[in-house]
Amino acid sequence: MTPIPSFRLACVQFRPDVGQNDGNRARTVALIEEAVRRGASLVVLPELSSSGYQFESRDEALAAGEPLSGGPTVAAWTEVAHEHGIHVVGGVAERDGDRLYNSSVVIGPSGLIGSYRKTHLWNAENTIFTPGDLGFPVFDTALGRLSVLICYDGWFPETYRACALGGADLICVPTNWVPMSGLPAGAPAMATILTQAAAHSNGVYIAAADRIGVERGQAFIGQSVIVADSGQVLAGPASSDAEEIIFATIDVEAARARRTWNQFNNPITDRRPEIYDSLTQRS
Amino acid sequence: MTPIPSFRLACVQFRPDVGQNDGNRARTVALIEEAVRRGASLVVLPELSSSGYQFESRDEALAAGEPLSGGPTVAAWTEVAHEHGIHVVGGVAERDGDRLYNSSVVIGPSGLIGSYRKTHLWNAENTIFTPGDLGFPVFDTALGRLSVLICYDGWFPETYRACALGGADLICVPTNWVPMSGLPAGAPAMATILTQAAAHSNGVYIAAADRIGVERGQAFIGQSVIVADSGQVLAGPASSDAEEIIFATIDVEAARARRTWNQFNNPITDRRPEIYDSLTQRS
Q: Each residue of B80-112: pLDDT tens digit?
């Protein structure tokens, strides 16, 4: 598809409540509508916006899981996307039989375009979710070629690179970032730094929507951020604890042109895959 | 080898002059000796410390090239390393027959341990140097397992990852960083951000020694930096235009232990190489 010339993207930062799917769904719809009133054509929501994060057991998580097709969260987001002619990317606890995936959906005005299942699971997620099995899809939409990564996926530069090699212009990151140790107080969050590095070295936009709040003792850091293909921060980092919507203008055609850095260099075509063999060796 | 418990590392930031190999060599030896007086056991020097950077022609560069074994720069650095029982990593324009490589050597008290040839060439380097053909070696030294990358190599997260997968504890980066466009004045250099991101996502120390000065119209940005495996900046960024030596204490055994982040997570073993296939596909 030929993408539209440029559009306004919103990252919604809010606090889902664990197990309160109905309330979370209503809150996300209200926030999407607020973002639309403020000009957004694409709204990115946090990881597990449907369900909250800090489950006490796999059974509790299963009860909060939903199918994507026909599930209430996808239905609600599809309705609002259709009504306003917008796109929505957001996190859903996906139930598929007895399996749970930490998923995110891509929804357009005509409904569900596709989904991504988180491939790198953080901490106790390993006791609840099945690792993603959909690879790193790229969705060719009216806004450009979109990919999705979730939270800890971003700690693996391979993930951003795989999306870029697949042709992604913009990578949406629904996330539930937690504090990292080993960094001095007041320093930029490692999440910000990893996001800037990935945007720059792949020549792609990245839009990360984080949650806020402390849930059953687990803190989240907020600081949602939208980064240009240069690595420049376009919006955010948002606050660490307030509900907030951040906005930036995305122009994917311009980013594609900017990927030619000079007569000789382009961050994708300068790769030397013939000497990267160790990266795909199974241990 | 079992590495020594901890040691002091120095990154030397200075201005080589193009084609003035004798003067550059004398200056590097003096600066290595100053770093040793201030406690360094490992001294990292910039890219092309032997020769300067901004050649007007391939012939000029060939004339400034040296063999590594038996060449005057390696001989001089070996002498000072032997005298003080230290290690030196630094950039040499390596002449091998009619070929030139943008190389860096790793030298210990007993002489040349090995070398690395820059694999990703920046801009007009493509008209002068042959791309490196030694892969991403890891040198098992008394200080820990060292790898070397050079400048634009760092724009490819594959390079840091390949070193880490090979077991590197510390990656030394002789560099000649140039200004990048698209970032606001006063923002951290993208070089700093890429270095922090690579250190954090691989759990390795990174020590980058940059040059300063404007050479035939080409500016360099200084800002040498030493980063811990957490991504925290330990020393620097140095100034953008002054000769300077920055120091930090390196403890590779501690970094190895810190790579276990929690009961489930480790940034290397959490990788999923079975889904990274696109990274090694030849175009």
A: 999 999 999 999 999 999 999 999 999 999 999
Going by their DSSP bridges, the two strands A42-44 and A7-13 should be labelled as parallel
Which residues in chain B are closer than 8 Å to A150, comparing Cβ atoms?
A: none
CA distances from A152 to A165, A194, B74, B271 (A): 20, 11, 43, 11
Tokens of A259: 């990927």
Q: How far apart are CA A174 and CA B45, in angstroms?
A: 41
Find, among B146, B159, B222, B162, the residue nearest to B194 by Cα.
B159
Tell me if B264 and A193 make a contact (CB, 8 A cut-off). Answer: no
For residue B180, the chain A residues in CB contact (below 8 A) are 200, 230
Q: pLDDT tens-digit profile of A149-185?
A: 999 999 999 999 999 999 999 999 999 999 987 788 8
Q: Please tell me whether the peptide bond between A267 and the residue prior to it is cis, using omega within 30 degrees of 0.
A: no
B61 CB-near residues (< 8 Å, 6+ apart): B51, B55, B93, B100, B128, B129
- Please write the tens of the pLDDT for every residue from B69-80: 999 999 999 999
Residue B70, strand partner residues: none
Residues of B with Cβ-Cβ distance to A181 under 8 angstroms: 230
Asked if B111 and B96 count as a contact pair (C-beta separation under 8 A), the reply is no
Distance separating alpha carbons of residues B205 and B135, to the nearest angstrom: 20
Length of chain A: 283
Q: Indicate the pairing of strand A225-227 with strand A233-235.
A: antiparallel
CA-CA distance, B96 to A146, in Å (whole number)? 46
| pLDDT score for A96 | 97
Model pLDDT, residue A13: 98
* Contact between residue A199 and residue A163 where contact means Cβ atoms under 8 Å apart: no
Q: State the nearest Cα–Cα gap between A28 and chain B, in angstroms.
A: 31
- According to DSSP, the β-strands at B7-13 and B244-250 are antiparallel
Q: What is the pLDDT of residues B131-158, one digit of tens each?
A: 999 999 999 999 999 999 999 999 999 9
Residue of B nearest to A263 (CA): B123
**CB distance A184–B232 less than 8 Å?**
yes
Determine how β-strand B87-96 pairs with β-strand B42-44. parallel
User: Which amino acid is present at B222?
Assistant: G
- Check residue B3 and give its pLDDT: 79
